[in-house]
Amino acid sequence: MRKLVPLLLLFACTTTTTPPLATAPPPCNPGLSLVNATAWVQSGAEYRAIAVATFAAARRSLDAALTDPAWNAEEGTSDPAQPPAIISDSDDTLFDNTRFETRALKQGKTYDDKIWADWVKEASTDAVPGASDFLAYAKSRGVTVFYITNRTAEEEPGTRQRIANLGFPLEANIDTVLTRGEREEWKAPDKTPRRAYVAASYRVLMLLGDDLNDFANARDKSAAERYDIVHAKESWWGTKWFMVPNPMYGSWERPLTGGTGTPCEQLQKKIDALKP
User: Fold this and answer.
1) Is the separation of the CB atoms in 88 and 147 below 8 Å?
2) Are residues 103 and 115 in contact, defined by beta-carbon separation less than 8 angstroms?
């Protein structure tokens, strides 16, 4: 063993350290984060549990709201004599759109107008867990369900067909599907005018959505301003306002990305915004 020592010392003295080769950054793939989010919504028992719990809580609150003449989930005055209604978003609140995300991802995209247009026309029949039972219960209690969606007026036929295919309530003599651009004053993505339209004739007991804009106008707000909206209505969450989780997309991305840039540039902005 002692004979090896000089050789080891010689090796140590004569060997130089070679610096590691510089490696290129990994290629950008914005779809990877969407894959994880879509897989969670499609397959995660945790997502199913949250969705079912959200609609179960909404059902309990609906019972309480119907017995309280002063209950109102929309800003402004409310007439107890008005018929009761609830307002819900459609996509990824009631409609499960994960198979649309899957189609886009398998084509190497995060979004595509043509894929979306085909999806709308197809009127596929997946529902968010818990949504069907809740809406059927609301209908049985004499509550009118309004669908306020930022799908366009041109997309309304496919949207109505999907509602019908899912067995969700649709009124024969009342327009309860209020799409973007259906009226001149409804051209903007802000849903406030459409909620006010419903509130003028109905006592709105509940709002449901997957995005803050389904409850208040949060468009172009900073992250801090969006937090303020949530805080201002703290007592309404889980009683009058119900949020279904959507990690796939949403207006929450805009404060991070500015809504500009390529998908790879937007992904990098999100990475840069992560808290250390």
Assistant:
1) yes
2) yes
Tokens linked to 44 = 């995660």
Residue of 176, 174, 88, 157 whose CA lies nearest to 127? 88
Structure tokens at 67: 């017995």
How is the chain split into domains, by residue range? 31-250
CATH class of the structural domain 31-250 = alpha beta
d(CA 217, CA 221): 9
Low-confidence ranges of the chain (pLDDT < 70): 1-26, 77
Instruction: State the DSSP H helix or E strand holding residue 24, giving kind and residue range, or none if neither.
Output: none
Q: How many helices (H) and strands (E) does the chain have?
A: 11, 5
pLDDT digits (tens, 9 = 90+) for 138-187: 999 999 999 999 999 999 999 999 999 999 999 999 999 999 999 999 99
Among residues 59, 51, 62, 179, the alpha carbon closest in space to that of 127 is found at 51
Other Cβ atoms closer than 10 A to 174: 12
- 148 forms beta bridges with 178
